[in-house]
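Re: How this chain folds, sequence and tokenised backbone to follow

Filed under: protein folding, tokenised backbone structure, sequence and structure records.

Contents: The amino acid chain and a row of whole-number tokens, matched residue for residue.

Body of memo: The sequence and its backbone structure tokens, given next.
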Amino acid sequence: MSPTKLPSFTARSYDFHEYVPVRNWIGGQWVDGSTGQWLAIENPRHGMPIGKMTLSGAPDVAAAVESAKKALPAWKNTPMRERAQVLYKLKQLMERDLEELCWLVSHENGKTYAEGKGDVEKGIECVEYAASLHMMADGGQLDVSRGVNCRVVYEPLGIVAGIVPFNFPVMVPLWMVPNALMAGNAFILKPSEVVPYGAMKLAELLKEAGLADGLFQVVNGQRDAVEAIVDHPDIQAVGFVGSTKVAKILYGRGAATGKRMLCLGSAKNHVIVVPDADVELTSSNVVASSYGCAGQRCMASSLMVAVGDVQNIIDATVAHVKKIELGKDMGSVISKAAVERIHNYIDQAEKLGAKVLVDGRGAKLAGNNGYWVGPTVLDNVTLDMPAGCEEIFGPVLSIVHQPTLDAAISLQHKSLYANGAAIFTTRGAVARYAVEKLEAGMVGVNVGVPVPREPFSFGGFNSSKFGHGDMTGWDGFRFWSRPKKITEKWAVYSDASWMS
């Protein structure tokens, strides 16, 4: 057990900076995991450990559940307007500590400072939306017959949990936590084992914001911790964001127990570019989408579908890519294994006939041992190449060519994934046709990253999502709550109807 107050993360540059060990946050205390084992946490920009993280198993999840049980009744009976006060305070505290949070995300994840700031600011937006739910979740009521009234109220599920990935250490947890808390639940978070610091700081800030001990807890670990969360009979719902392979397994495992599951998976987002598209708008947006966060996001525009003759747009895209300065405009990838995986996709594509227009293999910063892949462009890719149909999750843009818009849309329909899709055009009729025909959960027109802002929800189709509804917005609140329908009749009438 250690003091609840953590030292501030004081780094304000990319220079290497060590930080404290990461422990579990259970019952308002920092505690070591039951396994007695620790895992080194690396700064991927430098390829050096900045700290270590405790590893947990089923006993730690059980301890968090027991703590949650003690705190839950009072929170469930707290009016939503009063729950919102905690989130208002959390928003203020995150804004107060914005610089610290941004640099911490940058150091644990390898993002640039600007990308770390985007991660934190989007998380703040999610908190802000959840704080407004007490004005929206009235449920509604209606006199459905003479003297008969129906209404709905949203009740908490109880103890719920989230399992989140490495690419957005602050934002993705905040897709879940604020909505779940506002619904009246207690929440257990299992952060990615490679970026646990964001969750650690959220625990501290929620404590400072006035959230009672046991309502938000963090259990750090790997597979054992994940399986313990999904299997625990007192955890009523689990949200997951990660790969399709794991999402499908966890969805099936949790659903088999009767648990409510929503598991977001992989993506291969198609960006269709037609000849009438604006050259500068298209090329700059595609590059920002493909290489932002080093391509390590599920909404990266990783597959450009070039319709007809758009060589001028391809040339402009390549010109933009060649101006990207590694370390300044684009950060590192997450690990040595990620470097090897991304290189393998490029190697395979080249051997199968793709043309490497920009080659990021072997990219390094002088005097730096971090995990780097430079921005890469592959042309003449086909769908039988892994680079054409699988999620690379790195700074690689694959270009496939199609003769017509219908052929391009048909290509998108063949994808296993359907998280996002976009079209770049200056013609309204073309845009509308594509929007109606594309099969993806999030569609953009002249927008490279068609992620909806709050209150609109985030979620894809097909194998990009397992479960019903979306993760954020109103759908997110409904996932963490259950509607109770109440029908009342107080007036007494002498005549009768079927409602009598």
User: Anything to note?
Assistant: The first helix runs from residue 58 to 76. The two ends are 61 Å apart (CA to CA). The chain has two domains: 24-265+464-484, 270-445.
